[in-house]
Structures are given as structure tokens and as C-alpha cells.
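Record 1 of the preview.
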Amino acid sequence: MIMWNIKNESYQWEIEVGDITILKGSNIIWYKLVRLIEDFFENKASTVKIYEDTQLLHKKDWECLFIPFDAHLQLDKINSKSPLKFIVDEVCNELELSPIYHEILDVWEALIDEVELMNHRVEKYGLDLKLELLKLDVIRDALTFSPINKEMTPIEYKKLLLSLFAEKYIDKKRLIIVELPELYADDMQLSDFLNSVKIFTGKGIKFIIVTQQSIKGNTNYLIDNKIINISCIDNLKRKVQNEVPFVCDDELFQMAKINLLQAVDNYKYKGESFKLLTRENSMLMVVIFVILFHIDIKLNLDTSRVESNIKEFIKSYS
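->
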């Protein structure tokens, strides 16, 4: 498992990352975190640092695109940072080789001669009148885009930005951050978008997706402002196995991990107080209790039906 430690002077968070990194839910922490990540890659003066395990990421090795929940793309004015710029560059390169473009240049030069003949009209003012050479930039500025679908939805803008960035030639690692792709999208549109994500991961592009949907990937959950993922639980395995007052084999620990992650997911989406999905297995409950204790999350357990030694063990953590 690969971990990213993201921090600046105010915040520090650690997430598990992979080809598709999922930040589950629409919590304000995810809102801040993805913008810190974008700032790290895009802002030369950024105070954010991202460590992969213990190594600081080299931002110059990366190209990052952030697609926010309210994604939009200006189509009528293309600047140097526009995702459409590479298309304009390609079009202008082709136009520069076009015979029609060179015919226009010849006509323009003749027009320059015509303007020079009109110079006598301004000489009495002590001025010199000239028509500048026609440059390709004039045509570049005149190129505009417009959507075929006049009322593009957020998911359509997201898919457009995704396609533009993914198909652009870049000789760097690529990261695309997508925020709430399900916003104003039906099931078919979301499925189509996620299929595109899957295709692009096959081309080496990495994704961080903030979502309330269940999407396959390296998932990070939030509970009580703490980030929980498979890696942070697995890292506690030996510690937990050594501390509980019974034999905790790999199977029991795996059950505890699955149950805990399901409970966290259930807690986030239904707005209920955090509770385990099972209370029949006291050993399972204790393993989860100890895991959460080391993550600094308190869990109140009903110990009325558990053995006395387990009850005393739980009291020792209070």
C-alpha cells in the first residue's frame, strides 16, 4: 500500500493512494484536502508538502488537473492555461501549412502596399500609417469553441475536461482530481464517466475522486475527523494481536477490519450515531475497539453480555 502524507502549516492528513484513490463522502476535510493537493502541484510558492511514504514528491515530475464539483470551462477565450490550448495549437499548426493561409498572406501583403499609398492622408499630421503583417496569433485569437449541447451539465463538463487532459501529450506523471462526479448526473452518465476513468487508468493516469458513491479503488473514510483506510488498520495488526486478552488470528482480524469499514461507511451515509454492525461476537467487538483506540476514536461498548476478563480489559483503556 502507498500512503501520501499531505501537510502545511495548519493541516496534516494521510491517505492511502493507488491508481484510483477514493475519498468517501462530501466532508469539508476532503474539500480542503484536494485543494491542498492541487496547490502543491500547481502553485510554485505553495507551502504544502506531500510525502509518498517518507519521500517528498517532486512536483516537477507531475501534471495535475483539478475538476471541482462545479466544473466549468471557458470556451470563448482560450488562455495559456486552458485545457483547450493544445487543440488550438494543433489547429494553428495545420493552418500554417495550408495553401489558403499562404494565399491570405499574399493578399495581406498587397493590402499593406495599399495602405502605404494612403499615407499621404496622415502626413500632414506628422504621422506614418502602416498595416502590420498578418500573424498567426490573429487567427488564433479568432478561434472559438461552443458546445454542441447548449446547456452542458456539471458531469458533461467533467467528462470534457477529463478527455482533454487525458488525451493531451504530456511527458510527466498525471494526476486528475475529481470532486463529486455524481452531482447532477444520472446513473448512466456516472457509469459512463467511471468507464472513462477506468480506461485512462490503463494509460497510467492516476485519479483522486471525492464521492459519496461506492466506487472501486483505494478508499479512505472519515469518522470524527479521522481518516480510516485499510492501510492504517493493517499497520495496527501486530499491536492489536499482542494487546487483546485472547488469540486474535488473521481471520478474526480480517473480520474486524471488514466490519469496521462497513460500520464507518454506514455511519457516514445514514447520519446515524456510529455503531458496529454486529454485537454478537464479543471478541470481534474488542478487536475493533482496540483498533479504534489506537486511531484515537472512542467507541462505547455494551459490556453487559461479555466475559468478565474482557470487561476488565475494556475498562483498562478508559
